[in-house]
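pipeline/complex-builder :: batch 7 item 3
reading input block
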Amino acid sequence: MSVSAEDRSWTGRVRRRAVAALPPEKLLPDKQPSYVSSWIYVLGVVSLSCLVVVIASGTILALKGPEWWHFTSVGHFFNSIHLWAVELFFFSMVVHLWGKYWMAAWRGGRARVWITGAVTFLVAIPCALTGYVSQQNFDAQWISTQAKDAMNAAGIGAFFNLMNFGQMYSYHVLLLPVLVVLIVSAHVLLVRRHGVVPPFELDEKLALARAGMVPEAGGGSAAAEPEGPAPGVDGDAQP
Amino acid sequence: MTRRERRRLDRARYSEWHGGYRSYDILKEASIALGVIVALCVVLTILFSSPDEKPSTIQSWSRGDPVDFVTTATTELDGSSTTGGYGPPYNHAADGQHMWFIYPAKWLGVSHPVDTAQDFVLMPLRSITGQPALQAAVSTYEAAPAKQQTAWTSAYEKGLTKDTSGPDGSVTVPGSGYGPLPVMMNRLLDFAQAGGLDGALLTSKQFYQTDYTKPLLFLSDGSALADRAQAEHLLGTQWGIMNETGSWPGQVWLWLYTFWYQIKPFSTSPNADLLVITIMGVLSLALILIPFLPGIRDIPRWIPLYRLIWRNHYRELREAQSAGS
């Protein structure tokens, strides 16, 4: 079979791989597995919604500059929106992480989904911290002068100075949000690619049979309900 | 079962879903979620607003507690203040915190040099023009041997404990043997109370300023910030890292980080910051690598909360079993 010049082009190759990894029905699904029926599944989209509100309110604050919200009621309103969206973002993200932990959501080759989610949480922390020290109020003074000791002790203070408002503002409105959005985007695409992790199978024999590893005849049926998953079967850590 | 077999079994069981599906509108779900979160944020904003405590200034500090200001300025002059003895990244007075043979601060060096005597006291005083007595006092101090300077500042710091603070915000230190310090410190106090020192500490090589390192270090060496922080339950011993002024929620997600500072050996260690940040670094790495950590990754199987999460799924399975038998 001949391969066209378009197929050999960088663009063509990237498009083929992207569509193979994420066909439209996976990227924008109109059906979902039947086991997705718990409120815990809502926390993922709630976290994303909070992030959207954080970025939108932060963009409005950035448009008017760092002093605006101190002197106008409209500015203070959007600062409050920003604060509450951040609080809700962290709350929903933490509950989301706990939920996924108890589902062992890294199973079935989903380790990268877990990793990107955990990294998002960890990167969001300095993103919030740089916001706190960019407030230009007493809070910023106290937090920056206290947190500097941890930064300095670790050597980070040599290039990340919490008392340098200009540097912290740059980190807060550009560098760290871009990083958060990039990691969250990767996380969402990985979720769409791999799907939501299926429930633990309670039927050990059926699982062994599906994997072609049945050691004895007379495997169980799909509806059989032994005690639980075999203790020796670990979740896959393979990305 | 070998590792490869375990992996194959895991893939076979969980990489793809082999059961039923139901209708789902991802965009509708996202839109509804966004609408609910926007509404919730607006309601929380209307009900609770957000905190915005005015910052402390050197002017407000020197007016509110002139004795503390002068005492702090004197320790800046002789280098005995917190910043004066801090070490990297501000000066070479100490090695910084360490853990065994690991000295991160020392290795990274002095990246933000601060000479507390010059930057916080002498240079601001030199910038005041039209006061020959003050300039003569500064010259006398600078020309004196280090031993004499220390004798003056030590005596002055001792005398400040018996000070009389005037109703006009002035400070009078009884006794003698202070050399040029009374003139220098009274003029520095006047300068600070007029607001001049706030600007003088920001002065650098250019017109625009965004680096508040020096005024913040000077402020934090005194009690101006700490007194307010204590009243607002923001001290480290008050779990302050995760608190906020007033009753608003702060960085609650730092509860574990804050926790370590409340217990020994961290609560009493001079290297507590480095120890705590190391522990949190290891724990953070462990969080990321949970899928690869035997034991930690197995807990969800051992404590089957998943039966609660997927109770509907398992009930449907049981019903299908009943119907089939």
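note: The first strand of chain A starts at residue 31 and ends at 33.
queue -> next item
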